[in-house]
Amino acid sequence: MDSVSVNKFRDNLKSFVEKVVEEHQPLKVTRRNGEDFVVVSAEDWEREQETLYILQNDSLMQQIAESIATHNQNQGYSPTDEELDALFGI
User: Fold this and answer.
1) Rounded Cα distance, 68 and 37, in Å
2) pLDDT tens-digit profile of 7-32?
């Protein structure tokens, strides 16, 4: 993660914000007399929140674990020829 002083951030706010949004990379802003903070795009923040929700949801994590186990045993879902035709519009 890149880091920049709060003064430099303030002086170049527009360019730093555009870089964070376009490159999807957070930016750490350091302050001399206070705690640092991180700037992230709204899209990236929402994605992180969704990930945290899933990781904290025991039921979803169990479903994922069961799905991985089924997949690893080659017992996953296989669509029928009719379902494939419908999916591909044939």
Assistant:
1) 37
2) 999 999 999 999 999 999 999 999 99
Residue ranges of the chain with per-residue pLDDT less than 70 = none
Instruction: Report the C-alpha gap between 42 and 28 in whole angstroms.
Output: 15
Spatial separation of the C-alpha atoms in residues 23 and 45, rounded to whole Å: 14
Give the integer Cα–Cα distance in Å for 66 and 87: 25
**How many separate domains does the chain show?**
2
CA 66 – CA 62 distance, rounded (Å): 6
- For residues 36 and 5, membership in a common domain is answered with yes
Structural domain containing residue 69: 41-75
Structure tokens at 47: 């994605």
